[in-house]
Amino acid sequence: MTDEKDDRVTLDKTTDDTVAGGTAEKDGSAAAETSAADTSVPDAISDPKASYLPHIAIGLSFVAVVFVVLVGWLAYGTVQQSAAETARTEARVAAEEQAVAMLAYTHDQVDAQTDAAAEGLTGDFRDEYTNLMKNIIAPGAKEKAISVQVSVQASSVVSADADNAVTLLFLNQITTSSENPEAVSSGSRVRVELEKQDGRWLVSRLTPI
Q: What residues form the membrane-spanning segments (predicted)?
């Protein structure tokens, strides 16, 4: 009877140890799984700021591109405006100089003056001017000792770009001749059209208004 009781006690103790060991093992596994789950949490969740970094980088890149485009556009506009202002100034000066060269002459030098003035003209207008001066104006100037002085009283630019310009000139002319030795003054307005060729502004048309 005593041996049978001892065996039962031993068996019960073994069973308790086994159950306790199993429970401990389950608790250890659960703790390990919990630890693994904790370590597998994404950085974006553990650090909320990290999730915004890609969006911030994209936003900054977009702003940089827009800034570069804006600066380029402003620079281009400044260059274009500067070129237009330069064209207006150069064309106006050329128109004034060429108008005086074309319209002013003395009876004793009219041929040489005509040739010099023609250097500042272009296209068909150059031939038209040369023919008019040499075939009509010069013979009359020599015969009647006509001399004409021309001055520009005012000028303005109607339009201008890199290669073409239109100007308006207000002129004063003083004419003397053998028939009228006293100077006769008169005013006139002319429209001068110009073209830029090889860096020079040349007159392509002069029209009295």
A: 52-76
